[in-house]
Each structure stands twice: as structure tokens, then as C-alpha cells.
Amino acid sequence: SAVISQKPSRDICQRGTSLTIQCQVDSQVTMMFWYRQQPGQSLTLIATANQGSEATYESGFVIDKFPISRPNLTFSTLTVSNMSPEDSSIYLCSVDGRGYQETQYFGPGTRLLVL
Amino acid sequence: SQQGEEDPQALSIQEGENATMNCSYKTSINNLQWYRQNSGRGLVHLILIRSNEREKHSGRLRVTLDTSRKSSSLLITASRAADTASYFCATVLSGGGADGLTFGKGTHLIIQP
User: Counting one residue from A and one from B, how many pairs have CB atoms under 8 Å apart?
Assistant: First the structure.
């Protein structure tokens, strides 16, 4: 199984600012995913990030608000831009662990509070 | 939009009892997975069942899948306090659509000692 770390683990930010979340994997993976979990809710896929190509965003999420980088096969960043209190959530990255559309391994999440 | 609906949303049982959670989904799937989340942390994969399978076991876990009813159930036998967590079903859609997982709303399970 892949070991995934995220930085920061939590943060408190002021509205209007931006935060970049880092996701590091201990092995090379093809696909990385970013999810949002709003308070008391389930997870919603934000985007899929493949190395060397633009991220693919799900309906309701746009690149200007959630720019994603994927510079290599072990690392990705998600930026939450121009934050508002509605962006307060847990942001999780995950990777395909055992092949395409199979089990995913998740990072511990980044807990974000926007004031 | 959420693919799955889970019920119950919350479940509280005594330690040693069995816990059953259900999940329904709306569209055709390649597989269905169950995950556990402890206290808002990262998710842990529990079990995957493919669309051509009807039942699968892993330790104290038993998962069933009924593709005609578009539903799945997760049974945890002989529950323990450490099983207290939120449980989510997640689907991988068939037809070459989104590569990520579509999660249900989850069941919050509390095991009373």
C-alpha cells in the first residue's frame, strides 16, 4: 500500500487569502485525486491529476478556484484560492493503489478553517 | 452529485452485536468499495466488490452486492469499540467516465462498550 502525507495537517486562514496543500506519496503513481469533505458531510471529488497534463475537474469545481499542480509522479498540490468561510472543509488527496479504478489510498487530510 | 445513499445515517449498538449498513446507488458501476473514516481523518479501504460478484468476506466484514437493486450492504460481525467510525460506500462508474470515486453519505457507527 502507498503511504501518503499531506501538509499542512490543519490551518486557520482569513477570508480572501489562498492556501496551498501538498500531497506526497512514497511511490510513483499515475493518478492522484483531490477530494473535499465539508463539515459532517461525505467526500466529493474535486479533480483528478495526472503527471504531465492538466487536471480534470468535476462539475462545480473550477481551475481558478482550485488550481492543481502535478510536477512529478510522487507529488501534487491543491491551492484553495480567495477563500471564504464556505471553503472550510477537510481536503484529502488519494492515489490509485492497485491499478486503474481499483482501491484508493488516502492521505490523512488537511483540515481548513476560514474565518 | 452523490451517487450513493446510505442508511442508516447513524447506528448505535452494543459491543459484540452485529452492525449492518446499507448503500444504494443510481447508475451502472464497475465496482463498489467500502471505506472507514475515524474522527474526520483519512479514509481506510475495507473491501472492494466487483459488479459480477454477489458476496465477499474479509475477516469480520461481509459485503453483498445486488446490481439489480443497485444496492450493497456491509455487515460487521462481533463489533468492537474500535469499530466506532464513519463508514462510506464508494462507486467507480462504468462506461469510462470519472476516474475518481463517488461516495455515499455515510453511516456513523457507534459501538457502546
Answer: 64
Q: Three cell numbers at B103?
A: 461516495
Q: Contact, A13 vs A19, CB < 8 A?
A: yes
Inter-residue contact A93 to A4 (CB < 8 Å): yes
How far is Cα A2 from Cα A95, in angstroms, rounded to an integer? 8
Amino acid at residue number B33: Q
List the pLDDT tens digit at each of the 115 positions of chain A: 789 999 999 999 999 999 999 999 999 988 899 999 999 899 999 999 988 888 999 989 999 999 999 999 999 999 999 999 999 999 999 998 766 567 889 999 999 999 9
CA atoms within 13 A on the CB side of B99: 19
> d(Cα B39, Cα A109) in Å, to the nearest integer?
11
Of A42, A90, A103, the CB nearest to B33: A103
The chain B residues in contact with chain A (CB within 8 A) are 2, 30-31, 33, 35, 40-45, 48, 88, 90, 92, 98-106
Alpha carbon distance A62, A68 (integer Å): 10
* Chain B environment of A21 (Cβ under 8 Å): none
- Three-state secondary structure along A87-98? HCEEEEEEEECC
Tell me the pairing of strands B19-24 and B5-7. Answer: antiparallel
CB B49 within 8 A of CB B63: yes
